[in-house]
Q: What sequence folds into this?
């Protein structure tokens, strides 16, 4: 969001507040559909509905759907007739139209498909046959192809027959008569080589085709690592299916990043910030429930030491410090591990090294802050032994935090559970339980 | 990181473990420099040094520096002589070489610059004159330019004089005789129009030039929103400085995402997972110290109620539940707000709507879980009033959490403090203090 865009958005909000709908419509007509999507996403439900109705009255706003986020798009389409949705999506790129349908409830998606003309339905169903999180679901089927045995001169004449090339065309795909992928003719090579040469002489045959089953995560890493603009999607038998372009990959990268961020709080990256209250409350309730269960677990552990707490109330005052420091230190290790795993840097051969390092870091920082906490506690409660006990408990908990922060994500991954989603909950459960147990346990032994 | 890459990495690790250095060198020679960087990043310090020494003995591995992360790059270069670093970076793109220098300690960077040949030094200093987080710091100065008054035929002949075009060239930049930006000639238009036409007739003059001062955050949003491959960087007076390409923008997007994620735990996205123990311990210690201060604040609040806790020890058992649920609920709101703000969707005109909504969500989920917690507490401690009190305290804390989750990021932003970094600490301090205070305070009033 640029400063410019912020200004524009603010002006649009102003026009809407002033009910200057005529001017608003004009202003929206001059904007890129991506910006119109931004505007819709920044509106509460009732206003969003109002603006969407205005947009629908005009033509050419359907591209907004390609740019709006999942939940926002659903909120726009939920009350529309299947035929109307089919008409709206008719001018979208095949992959964008498929995305719209994939986000819908199955029943609604079927109705919309049934309302489309047959040719388009068949083509969309082809894209839909691949999972949304695979290369097949990401690909676009509009591809310019050429054959190996023609000259660049012929290719140049063929291109001039077009009024424009498909978006993000940095290469023409070279195929044989059976539509089998042979290589890529980069525009930069087409333009720098003699027109008399054959495509076969100039094409790059080392371009790696992407299988349609490859996960979008892998596709994004390949694009990022190789600095690609586009890449061909080719079936196992060599048949060329389509191509993936960097703009869609950028969306994958952004979505993945948002997913890691949002799932830490038990949220979904598709969530609409302006979703109705009840929907949001329902989406968030489960996460609170899970965390409540872990909080009760910690409370239960504290409950074992009621007799101790009754005698030394200072323990109740200090115990959250031990638990909280463990949670913070463990989260640091966990975050580093999850990132290292996502980037593929954590492997069997270096896990032991990492765990030893994290334990050493936990030991050093544990020692430093244990001394501080111990001193403060001793002075505060005029009890030297209490200081020694909280320092020891802190040390124990920070070592456990280092161990848990390293092992929990590895364990969760082995169990096929997303560490970004569950890692934090499991970790803080461990650091709470260990923190309370070690502190209150040591106190029971040495202070009573 | 693809499955393929994971396999390759595992094999490389194996070769290194077996000390099959000859084979390792051969294997590394066949890899993309991005993969070699991945391999280096997945090695503990001593092994990393060993492999880097092997790489340095050969030629052509300097591109690895363009792909390695900041801290990793520094660890590779720290013991090298300035002249050696100057030689290594001599073949890097101007923007990559500038990045390497910008990450170095000032003294070392100056020495390296002094060791470069003059022409390159002047060009790099030009890039260095812009902040690393601006368009100027991101741009590359290798640009193909054409003039308005020539025919496409001439342009095509001119291009054939090159053996290749600069990477990611999707447009030629059109300038006048004073190097002032006039527009862009997209390759796709060059290829689809008659060679007899003039550049002036075919060029796009609505291409938005980027000012060198624009932040990389804004640049990335523009690229993402407009689906650009490259964009010209133009000074205020119209002088063409260079261009920004999508591959560098993808890095910005990835870095931003990592920054949000890592800064939640007080970490830096440039941190090296295999950094030496002491460096890591130092990097993390401050964050633990800050959190310790907030933990003491919470303990101090609990301390006010020592007399109450002495009489009813059940309060000590249950109080972490109230604090923890507030923290979880508040983090959900905070995460949604920070994301909404980053995407530019939170504005003055809708802040009130959002706050009311978050309060309503807090009320609903507060009510649901308050009943559960209240019932469990009543049964557990056979004290109905205790259940009512914890339910009320939970309700109060969840409403405060909603309010804080909404207002804290807005306030921090106004104070120019990164909400992703500080938001969580401030929020949990509020929810801890309010949680303990409301629960123990209500108990003091109604149970004593």
A:
């Amino acid at each position: 969001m640029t400063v410019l865009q912020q200004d524009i958005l603010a002006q649009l909000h102003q026009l809407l507040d002033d009910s200057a709908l005529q001017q608003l419509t004009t202003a929206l007509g001059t904007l890129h559909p991506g910006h119109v999507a931004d505007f819709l996403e920044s509106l509460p439900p009732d206003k969003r509905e109002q603006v969407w109705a205005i947009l629908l009255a005009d033509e050419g706003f359907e591209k907004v759907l390609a740019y709006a986020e999942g939940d926002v798009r659903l909120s726009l389409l939920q009350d529309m007739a299947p035929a109307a949705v089919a008409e709206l999506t008719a001018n979208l790129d095949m992959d964008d139209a498929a995305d719209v349908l994939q986000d819908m409830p199955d029943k609604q998606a079927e109705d919309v498909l049934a309302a489309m003309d047959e040719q388009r339905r068949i083509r969309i169903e082809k894209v839909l046959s691949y999972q949304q999180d695979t290369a097949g679901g990401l690909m676009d089927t509009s591809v310019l192809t050429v054959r190996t045995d023609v000259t660049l001169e012929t290719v140049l004449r063929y291109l001039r027959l077009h009024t424009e090339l498909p978006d993000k065309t940095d290469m023409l795909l070279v195929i044989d008569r059976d539509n089998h992928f042979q290589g890529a003719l980069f525009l930069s090579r087409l333009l720098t080589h003699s027109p008399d040469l054959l495509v076969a002489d100039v094409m790059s045959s080392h371009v790696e085709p992407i299988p349609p089953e490859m996960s979008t995560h892998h596709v994004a890493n390949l694009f990022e690592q190789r600095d690609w603009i586009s890449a061909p999607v080719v079936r196992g038998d060599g048949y060329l299916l389509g191509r993936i372009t960097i703009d869609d990959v950028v969306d994958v990268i952004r979505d993945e990043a948002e997913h890691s961020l949002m799932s830490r709080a038990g949220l979904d990256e598709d969530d609409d910030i302006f979703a109705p209250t009840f929907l949001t409350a329902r989406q968030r309730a489960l996460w609170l429930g899970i965390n409540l269960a872990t909080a009760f677990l910690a409370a239960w552990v504290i409950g074992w030491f009621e007799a101790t707490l009754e005698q030394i109330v200072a323990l109740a005052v200090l115990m959250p410090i031990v638990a909280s420091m463990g949670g913070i230190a463990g989260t640091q290790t966990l975050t580093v591990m999850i990132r290292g795993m996502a980037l593929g840097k954590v492997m069997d051969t270096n896990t032991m090294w990492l765990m030893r390092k994290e334990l050493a870091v936990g030991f050093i920082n544990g020692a430093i802050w244990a001394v501080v906490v111990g001193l403060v506690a001793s002075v505060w409660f005029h009890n030297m032994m209490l200081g020694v006990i909280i320092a020891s408990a802190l040390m124990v908990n920070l070592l456990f935090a280092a161990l848990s922060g390293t092992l929990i994500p590895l364990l969760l991954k082995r169990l096929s559970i997303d560490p970004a989603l569950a890692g934090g909950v499991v970790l803080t459960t461990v650091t709470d339980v260990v923190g309370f147990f070690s502190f209150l346990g040591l106190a029971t032994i040495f202070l009573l």
Notes: The domain at 277-447 of chain B is CATH 1.10.357.20 (Tetracycline Repressor; domain 2). The first strand of chain B starts at residue 145 and ends at 147. Residues 298 and 433 of chain B are 5 Å apart (CA to CA). Chain B touches chain A through 134 residues (CB under 8 Å).
